[in-house]
Write a structure and sequence with these properties.
The complex is a heterodimer.
Chain A lengths: L2 H10 L1 H7 L4 E5 L5 H6 L3 E4 L8 H7 L5 H12 L7 E5 L3 H16 L8 E4 L7 H18 L5 H24 L2 H11 L4 H13 L8 E7 L6 H8 L2 E6 L17 H10 L9 H14 L4 E7 L5 H12 L3 E7 L6 H8 L9
Parallel strand pairs in A: 1-2, 1-3, 3-4, 5-6, 5-7, 7-8
Chain B lengths: L5 H22 L5 E3 L6 H6 L3 E3 H10 L3 H10 L8 H9 L18 E5 L5 H9 L5 E5 L11 H13 L1 H22 L5 H27 L7 H13 L4 H20 L9 E6 L12 H6 L1 E5 L1 H9 L7 H9 L2 H6 L3 H12 L4 E6 L6 H10 L4 E5 L11 H14 L1
Parallel strand pairs in B: 1-2, 1-3, 3-4, 5-6, 5-7, 7-8
Helix pairs in contact in B: 1-10, 1-11, 3-5, 4-5, 8-14, 9-11, 9-13, 10-11, 16-17
Classes of the chains: A alpha/beta, B alpha/beta.
The structure holds iron/sulfur cluster (SF4) (2 copies).
Protein name (chain A): 2-hydroxyacyl-CoA dehydratase
InterPro entries (chain B): FldB/FldC_alpha/beta (IPR010327)
Protein name (chain B): 2-hydroxyacyl-CoA dehydratase
Chain lengths: 354, 412
């Protein structure tokens, strides 16, 4: 099997792939969990993905006004969809994740009969100030102690190596991978031991891949732990050549300046800029530069219902990128409404269709 | 039936005068700050920099029925008009096109806006402020903790370090140090620690009065004041905390309540059911709170405004900046994070001897499920109303639901 096929197979069933590695599995919520520490503890960090569709328990405990991804993740945790988890570490990548943490913490307390593993918050914050660095460093030290980790040096180097390779894939994908495939490759690396993921990605970089085509689109807005939106857009004649969410290129945009706990704190503090955590100005500058780098012809913002940040970013992003752009607001999790798709299709030059 | 509280009318009048005076000062070149309700306003107070509270201004705009027009101004500029409307209303004031229609003559443009980066959208709203000429946004982190203190309301006045955790306090103290330097440099004003200590002492005095008032109302049978009347009596002085006027206003409110209790004044003579209201005020239908007095003898005796003033603000300690950081580093935990919030509501329900709780649950209610659960587990009946506090369209059958619930509650 080609490395690409293997990675995409992992992406389709991440839970099974993670458990097949034979290591204790720790569920991670959000891109701000320092996975290095979990690796260093001899465990496998599995980033928890939601699944579009029913989220009844999540709705009950979180309220229906919260990002459906968080509601889905909570529902799946309670349903045991992720298999046996040694622990769950929740990061503060967005408001919905924090609420998910509070719900889990409280459920463990008041409904102890529920099968929930220990739950831990790692409060990584993002203001670009030294005061914040010191705080994040303290939070990372706390997590390290909680996990009983010794020296994380090796794990930091291993994860950084994977990030650098993924950055190479991000260049390759502009001409040789569809956006959907790229999303799958990245997702696969969030479910495998870092060494396994690294070996597969390395092999992928050596494979001969056919050229891909389509109207080159840069995707901004909400994050995508599910390929639904990518698939619809690419079926409709677009090729997603870049994105700025943390299930895509933002996941590995930054490495550590040194294999130390301090540099690890700085890496997580400054990683991004993600929609829920960065300023409008930072986002606009990043989106414009990233769209340019991948040769995008159009800019599409997909804003999921109850994901509040992206609509605020859009007008500055459009102005900075200087590309034809559409904001699809209030979109369902994992898909696009007919109305939104019709509007997005106006970005296609005449004569382009599937 | 009782008349309106004098302290409520006085407070409302004072607020108007203050606003007019502030507008003149700002027109004369004094810098203005716009701050979030749960931000450390005491620093501005100590430095003599006037400030307007974001959420208060939104409530004035709503009362003048200008919210829709203001949200339209946001829409025209390509910003969402349906996310955190309460926080975004003031921003729309920056785009005011019609001073004739602007409430109270309009909000002058601030030179600094201060707010925590809570939520995903609220910091963006401040970013848009920051993009306006002459306006700087000073962001504060909003940190969160794994550990939960037990009975935080007992710890907070003196043992806040233990309740909140040192990392969060280090962070916020660092940020406040930066804020002071920023204000010194950009306004040329002096931060005197002596003055700052006075301000903090006044705030504590004020909240001690609120605490006594809360305890009076909790113990009084029948309930001496309408819950809606208490709100301006607490909140207007709250926005002026750190002044002698505010401290005295809190004391006047207390004295008025005590007189009523001593005179046996009742909001409803025939008080049969004591109710607690959890959630934001139902601003589009304030009459709601009295509607069930006649039919069921049901009286609302509690809302969060006086109670959080009583329990949420007191901070004593030798290091004034750290004590101020402690007032805000966990402010929203107190009201919204389970179990902090849920346990506090249970304690307050018992303290006030309520027969039932009406819980307004909006779509994005933080910790709503756990609040209801905790109350019911404590044997307190809860009616959940699902509606938005400012949007009249969502409230249709609230009265019907209340009636059915009270019928049952009254027959037990
Ligand atoms: S106490 Fe409640 S209503 Fe008052 S400002 Fe804070 S959140 Fe808003
Ligand atoms: S019963 Fe209560 S509501 Fe009715 S008139 Fe008497 S005091 Fe007023």
């Amino acid at each position: 099997m080609s490395a690409l096929a293997e990675l995409l197979a992992v992406a389709r069933d991440r839970v099974a792939a993670a458990h097949a590695a034979g290591l204790p599995v720790v569920g991670c919520v959000g891109a701000d969990v320092p996975v290095e520490l979990i690796t260093a503890a001899g465990m496998l960090p599995l980033r928890l993905a939601g699944k579009p569709g029913a989220s009844e328990l999540g709705d009950r405990y979180l309220g229906s006004g919260v990002d459906p991804v968080a509601r889905s993740v909570l529902t799946r945790i309670l349903a045991g969809d992720y298999g046996k988890l040694e622990a769950i570490v929740v990061s503060r990548d967005c408001e919905a994740s924090l609420r998910l943490f509070y719900a889990l913490r409280e459920l463990r307390r008041v409904e102890p009969e529920l099968p929930l593993p220990p739950v831990r918050l790692v409060d990584v914050l993002h203001l670009p100030h030294h005061t914040t660095t010191r705080y994040v460093k303290a939070k990372i030290a706390e997590l390290r102690e909680w996990l009983g980790v010794g020296d994380p040096r090796e794990a930091i180097e291993a994860h950084d190596r994977l990030r650098r390779l993924l950055a190479e894939v991000a260049v390759l994908r502009r001409t040789r991978l569809t956006g959907t495939q790229f999303l799958g490759v990245v997702a696969a690396t969030t479910a495998l031991p870092v060494a396994t993921a690294t070996a597969l990605v390395e092999r992928l970089l050596g494979e001969v891949l056919p050229e891909v085509d389509g109207v080159r689109a840069f995707l901004t807005g909400s994050s995508h732990d599910d390929p639904g939106v990518y698939e619809v857009l690419e079926e409709n004649g677009f090729l997603i050549t870049g994105e700025d969410h943390d299930w895509g290129e933002l996941l590995f945009a930054r490495t550590c300046a040194a294999p130390t706990e301090l540099a690890l704190a700085e890496r997580y503090q400054h990683n991004g800029p993600s929609a829920p955590r960065a300023s409008i100005r930072q986002r606009a500058a990043h989106t414009a530069a990233a769209a340019r780098a991948c040769g995008a012809e159009v800019l599409i913002s997909y804003a999921r219902v109850h994901d509040d940040a992206p609509p605020w970013d859009f007008s500055a992003q459009r102005a900075a990128a200087g590309l034809p752009a559409v904001l699809a607001g209030h979109q369902p999790y994992g898909g696009l409404t007919e109305k939104a798709l019709t509007e997005i299709r106006t970005l296609l030059p005449l004569g382009v269709s599937r | 039936m009782t008349g309106r509280l004098a302290s409520a009318t006085t407070a409302t009048a004072y607020q108007r005068e203050w606003f007019a005076r502030m507008r003149e000062e700002v027109a004369g070149g004094v810098p203005l700050a716009l701050v979030n309700a749960d931000a450390p306003q005491e620093i501005f107070r100590a430095m003599g920099i006037p400030y307007v509270v974001n959420q208060w201004w939104a409530s004035i705009v709503a009362a003048k029925r200008q919210t829709q027009r203001y949200l339209g101004l946001l829409r025209e500029r390509g910003y969402p008009d349906d996310i955190e409307q309460y926080s975004a209303t003031s921003l729309a004031s920056a785009f005011e096109t019609d001073l004739e229609q602007a409430p109270w003559g309009g909000l002058p443009t601030p030179s600094i806006v201060l707010g925590e980066t809570t939520g995903d959208a609220s910091r963006k709203i401040f970013d848009v402020w920051d993009a306006q000429p002459g306006v700087t946004y000073y962001p504060l982190e909003s940190a969160a903790e794994n550990a939960v203190p037990e009975r935080w309301w007992e710890l907070m006045p003196h043992r806040w370090e233990e309740a909140i955790g040192s990392d969060r306090l280090d962070l916020m103290t660092g940020e406040l140090t930066g804020l002071i330097r920023f204000l010194e440099q950009t306004t040329g004003r002096v931060f005197s620690e002596t003055r700052f200590r006075e301000v903090l002492a006044l705030v504590n005095e004020q909240q001690e009065w609120n605490r006594r008032t809360r305890d009076l109302i909790a113990a009084a049978r029948p309930c001496p004041i309408a819950v809606t009347d208490g709100i301006p009596s607490v909140m207007v002085p709250q926005w002026h905390r750190g002044t002698e006027w505010a401290r005295d206003a809190a004391r006047a409110f207390h004295d008025e309540v005590r007189e009523r209790v001593e005179a046996g004044v009742a909001v409803c003579e025939d008080e049969r059911l004591r109710l607690m209201w959890i959630g934001r005020g139902l601003w589009f239908d304030l009459e709601f709170y009295r509607r069930f007095q006649e039919s069921h003898g049901a009286v609302f005796v509690w809302s969060m405004y006086l109670a959080i003033a009583a329990d949420g603000y007191l901070r004593y300690g030798d290091d004034p900046l750290r004590a101020l950081a402690a007032r805000f580093a966990a402010f929203s935990d107190q009201l919204y994070t389970p179990p902090w919030s849920a346990e506090w509501y249970v304690k307050e329900a018992r303290h006030h001897g309520v027969d039932g709780v009406v819980h307004l649950v909006s779509d994005d209610a933080r910790g709503g499920y756990f609040t209801t659960r905790a109350l019911r587990a404590a044997g307190i009946p809860v009616l959940e109303l699902h509606a938005d506090n400012v949007d009249a369209r969502t409230g249709g059958d609230l009265t019907t639901q209340m009636t059915a619930w009270l019928d049952e509650l009254g027959s037990n």
